[in-house]
## 1
Amino acid sequence: QQQVKQSPQSLIVQKGGISIINCAYENTAFDYFPWYQQFPGKGPALLIAIRPDVSEKKEGRFTISFNKSAKQFSLHIMDSQPGDSATYFCAASRQGAQKLVFGQGTRLTINP
Amino acid sequence: EPEVTQTPSHQVTQMGQEVILRCVPISNHLYFYWYRQILGQKVEFLVSFYNNEISEKSEIFDDQFSVERPDGSNFTLKIRSTKLEDSAMYFCASTRTGRREKLFFGSGTQLSVL
């Protein structure tokens, strides 16, 4: 019930294309869903996050789509750039909890 | 931009040895965390710490692990008797208010247990 399942494990996209990473969760008590970006040798950094009262959140080229009934959320990167090449983690957390539950991570490569 | 600093970046130790991983959280932060990531696996929560007490810990955080804030700036994770399966990247994180939205991670310490 605490798991967050992320797919795909790795993804290769051409420059200018759309990158899509998906996550699914089981615990309906989760109320905060962030995406983290991690470059080699660095810690995860918050990219964008959503709460379940909205179905979509957009910040620049990054969009989270949230489907509460399906218990799924996804990250869309529009006009993907080589600088977006990194590992992306989805995560979830419930109100009052200290911890984030992370997905397995997706290694994204944007080919020039 | 303020950042969470972790030292060393890579530590090698022999099985059964004690190891201390060090972190300097952002200066006005009050809530501190350790996460770990075994190679190729997901990032896992270990422990949270506030007001000199553990506020939450995972099943991973057994009696071999301890945390301490020995002074006003450092936050440490001690593993008393390391096992091969403790080999992982250990991330320290901190937040000022305890809000999940304001969590900052360090760059990690890669622990290799031989």
## 2
Amino acid sequence: NAGVMQNPRHLVRRRGQEARLRCSPMKGHSHVYWYRQLPEEGLKFMVYLQKENIIDESGMPKERFSAEFPKEGPSILRIQQVVRGDSAAYFCASSLQGVPEKLFFGSGTQLSVL
Amino acid sequence: AQSVTQLGSHVSVSEGALVLLRCNYSSSVPPYLFWYVQYPNQGLQLLLKYTSAATLVKGINGFEAEFKKSETSFHLTKPSAHMSDAAEYFCAVTPARNNNDMRFGAGTRLTVKP
């Protein structure tokens, strides 16, 4: 859905660098979800945030990954010290009410780690 | 735990032919089931959803899906394929309406031949 904006569309990083993925939800949406899609696999839930709060991060790797959704500005998914296994498509979705059936997805960020 | 399996990572049909994309689910509790479509270079869009009401669910663009508990299936169909239906289709399941643990299938890429 064109309303959820993700940037960059493609991101190339070398091993050990940091990756920052941005997601601006649809206007008026205060719930943001991040998913990761590995090649030949479905989308896997990573984290669910509301403004300034992490609600559920059960799908997030314990190390190197973090997410935030500040009061102002986009949601950020941050991956420190990237490794080749982090190469994937990362999708952001937003909703108005925090109900999964009413998710609107962005076009994703394709992260490639060299 | 909930999961979905999409049978066939690639399906090819001729324009005007029946489209059948298969999805089987596994759930320990009554599931909510979804089909999403992803067009090239776009985010996922909700096609249709089953949330314990009618077992035959109609969605956008002429697609429909039938929930069959006895077969644990939620196959997606369309009577007559159109070229514009070429896309990637994802089946998803969540165990409760506001559960953030939506599980996606690996996706099925639909090709429509003229």
